[in-house]
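User: Assemble these into one structure.

Assistant: Restating your components, then the assembled model:
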Amino acid sequence: MNRALLVNLPKTDYLAPPAALGILSGICKDQGWDSNVVDFNKILYNTLSEEHLDDMDNWLTGIIDDISQELKDEIFSLWSEHVIKNVSDYQLLCISVFSYWSLGIATFLLEMQDQFINRAETKIVLGGNGCISKIPGTDEIFDDWIYRTNFGDYIVYGDGEPGFISILQGDYTAPGINNKQNVREEDLNDFPAPDYTGFDFKSYQGKKVYITGSRGCVRVCTFCDIQNIWPKFRYRSAENIIEEIKKHYYELGVTFFDFTDSLINGSISNFYKLNCLLAEEKEKNPDLAPISYIGQAIVRPRRHMPEKHYEAMYYGGCKQLTIGMESFSEPVRDHMLKKFSNEDIDYHIKMCSYWNINNIWLMITGYPTETEQDHQDNIDGLYRYAKYAKQGIIEMIRWGTTMHLIEDTPIMAPEMIKKLEIYEYDKSKSSIYSGTGWNWISKKNPTLTLKERLRRRIELHNLSVQLGYPQPRVREELKIINKLADKIS
Amino acid sequence: MRNYLLVSLEHPAITMLRVEIAGNVVKHKKFFNNYYFVAHHAQPVQIFFEPWGIKPIVRFNHHLVDYSLVNINQFDHMLEFTCNVNYQEEYFLKIIEHKKQYFALQNTDVNLVDNFIGVDVKYTDLVEEITQKLK
């Protein structure tokens, strides 16, 4: 029987089985292939010391340029044990390269493993957004590196499902395979359902499953690169999503679902239908009552999402929304193209309080157009919404590590760079590699230096603590900020 | 600061509702499926309803509350609690406590509080170190 080994690279979270491996497993099952999964991200998390995990994280996110040989040896030893050792049993070694944060480890492992794998027997398939990202510290895109070095056989672009199905069927020249110009964007309803039966859920933090309701986004926020990955917004029908939810519940007993969508309310009508149908299913089948979900969403005005939509979310089982709030300043959000007002925020959070739907608010400090007044708006916003933090409705707020400019985002487009007169302040002083753009300055807003951005960030941290807003992963963020502060010392 | 809570109950099946505060029946108002009344701080509240066995949604000042986090005792035929206008402080602390218990039950690593709960994150020393560099 044909067999595929499916592997996940860091840096992803440790909360649940990675969605990519679930999707690939489902396709293998659908196509009659046997498969095994290796969540290498989790293996490293379980095995490396805290110090080594920190070093690896800092290396992958570009805070440090390299890791020690000792750590490299340890990582490769684990890779040998969990991947190389039995790889000859598999016709395909499929590696998920989730983002540019995966590329440091991807290039290292692919190069190191090459002498140990018989490529005539085992083909290497790569996929994920990291494949079209620049390798940190270089100007080379990962797929070009693969084609140049020949450390991989096939790269799947665009939707992974049709490309991977073609590979399993032996068609290596189908659209989307080794050709990023010719990718398919198919109906998401046509893809096989993901399969998580090969995972040990006890080894993850919570028994939940990632589920995808849509790809792409209905906004073009200036700091976001999602348009490069999914140019068009596509969504699954509510019925199709519910069938997958029921599948995972009846097969695995999973009752908690985390949507991977950039936004679950991209299609307002479909989202409302999903919630109504979920509520109806729970009424018909009381054993489905514990089913709940979380996901990312955008703030919508009242006229687009009236109260009945929030009511439907409550009865459908929505427990938490992660909102890209970004700033409490309307001018800053207008420049970002977020398209919601302060009044919309007030309405949204009141509805969430009314229907007990928790929020995580993601914020950006130091957007290029952020003035002192905009910063004051952020401070005022913290006071304004503090009572919702006490209620637990604003479950967490994340201020991040200050605005860094990521290539291939709209704000890095030549016309925007020219308009805002953005430049990298002093490349020689920054060991943060170019491409992440931490130490930039805008001549149109010259007082917003890196020093000022960090000052504002610390001020927001202190006020958030004082007002009682829970802030996750702050230690990690403050350590990064501390390293950034070295650049201005 | 207000010394009372606006309490509301919602359930589509309610056919009878009687609210007693400190043993006295109080009037309530109904708008659509919501029943509203006012309770003052420290007053004992009992809400009798029919049919029995339902679990109405309860809101304090338009905030949908979890029964256990606001100490609502639930019976088949009634709910009872003591009105606390400062319920939010205790509400928040209980949420955090339950989250900490959840992760402790999972027996996972010590960074969970920072990673997934986000309290006790003052990090005074680290913040001071950064502040000094920014001077």
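Chain B has a mean pLDDT of 91.
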